[in-house]
Amino acid sequence: MLKIVKIVQPTIIALAVTITSSVAALPAGPPAPTIDLVDTSDSGASNLDNVTGRTFLDFRVSAGSATSVVIKNGVTVVDTFVMPAVEFTTRTLTVGASLAVADLLEGPNPVSVESTDAGGNISRSEELLVTVDTTVPPSPSAPDLLFSSDSGSSNSDNVTNVTQPAFQGTGEANGTVRIRAQSCAGGASPVVGQGIVGADATDGVLGNRLGVWEVTVGPLAADACYRFTAVMEDLAGNISTGSATTDVTLDSTPPQRPTIDLVNAFDTGKPDNVTRLSTLDFRISGEPGTTVAIKDGNTVVDSFIMPGVAFTTRTITWPVEGIAVEGPHPLSAEATDTAGNRSQQSAELLLTIRPRRVSSSR
Q: Which residue has the higher pLDDT, 356 or 268?
């Protein structure tokens, strides 16, 4: 006899289980402190570069109220205080020979702030690199008038007609150079121009901390002899003694107008200034020391320096510079002084050369 067995599948019941976890929140630290060098303590051309020549420096500090604050130079604590209930407070640090007797040293100082609240939680600021430089820079080189500003026949005689001349020299790299001008007779010496010195090695030598500068001065007020000197100010605001001086003569006035006339003994024909001669003497006037050029049309046929006399005589023989003997010769004289100023051209002398013709015999 067969026995029937019935298998019953068990019923699975899903249970939703919620597991909760409670973790205690960590206490928040105090707000991050900040430190900044006060503008009035940041000497030099910029009050934002944190390079200074002062020995008592004020810092602007922020931190959580009532937190214990320490200021560090590197890893050394140089100041401690409790932050008052204000947004910012000012702390003064001193510069000295060692951190045993002062807070800051000559050179770079990595300054930072830490604040600690009552629960012992610590917050730190970003590092502020403050460079202290109390060393007076060396004097710059004497101002050297650029060739392009030294007009006239010589570009090295320091006689010029340029009223805004440019000078060059060397000085402490990245500093500020100022040019002062004084009358050669003495008196005040105001600043007439300034510029920034180039980086180290712009003078051609790497590592000597010197750079090249170029400064245009003026405009200068009047023709005179001027005595120029240069003074350096480094990034920290330290000022050098003056450089050696350079005397420059400004002459922007054209020389007097010259004159030219045919010497009477050579005026052989009629009307005036008609001659049969080809070698002729001329009577010239001009400002002493100027270079006088005699032209036939636009061609210079003679040039000389005017001596210290009222008149001088010059001899010219035709043909000259490719100009034929016979015919009209529109002559003129023009003077140029050592500064390069050119005079007004003289009145024109219209010379006519008619050589004597030799008749042929039969």
A: 268
Residue 27 is predicted with a pLDDT of 60
Q: What angle do CA 232, 234, 238 make, to 5 degrees?
A: 85
In whole angstroms, what is the distance from residue 63 CA to residue 69 CA?
8
Enumerate residues 6+ apart whose C-beta is below 8 A from 147.
155, 156
Identify whether the C-beta of residue 105 lies closer than 8 Å to the C-beta of residue 128.
Answer: no
Cα 235 to Cα 171: distance, rounded to the nearest angstrom: 12
Which pLDDT score, from 0 to 100, does residue 360 have?
Answer: 58
The position carrying tokens 């409790």 is 82
Q: Which helix (H) or strand (E) holds 353?
A: strand 349-353
Write the DSSP string, 77-137: EEEEEEPPSSS-EEEEEEEESSTTT-SEESEEEEEEEEEE-TT--EEEPPPEEEEE--PPP
Whether residue 157 contacts residue 165, with contact meaning beta carbons closer than 8 Å, is answered with: no
Does residue 276 surpass a pLDDT of 60?
Answer: yes
Question: Contact at 8 Å (CB) between 114 and 124?
Answer: yes
Q: Are strands 166-172 and 89-96 parallel, antiparallel or unpaired?
A: unpaired
Angle at 101 between CA 99 and CA 102, to 5 degrees: 60
Query: Hunting for tokens 């039969």 — which residue is that?
Result: 362
Contacts of 48 (CB under 8 A, 6+ apart): 39, 42
Interval 37-71: pLDDT, tens: 999 999 999 999 999 999 999 999 999 999 999 99
- DSSP type of residue 147: G
Interatomic CA distance for residues 325 and 355, integer angstroms = 8
Contact partners, residue 334, CB within 8 Å, separation at least 6:
258, 292, 293, 295, 342, 343, 345, 346
Q: Residue 271: its pLDDT value, please?
A: 83
- Cα separation, 115 vs 120, in Å, equals 9
Residue 342 to residue 337: CA distance in whole angstroms: 7
Per-residue pLDDT tens over the stretch 213-270: 999 999 998 999 999 999 999 999 999 999 999 999 999 999 999 999 999 999 998 8
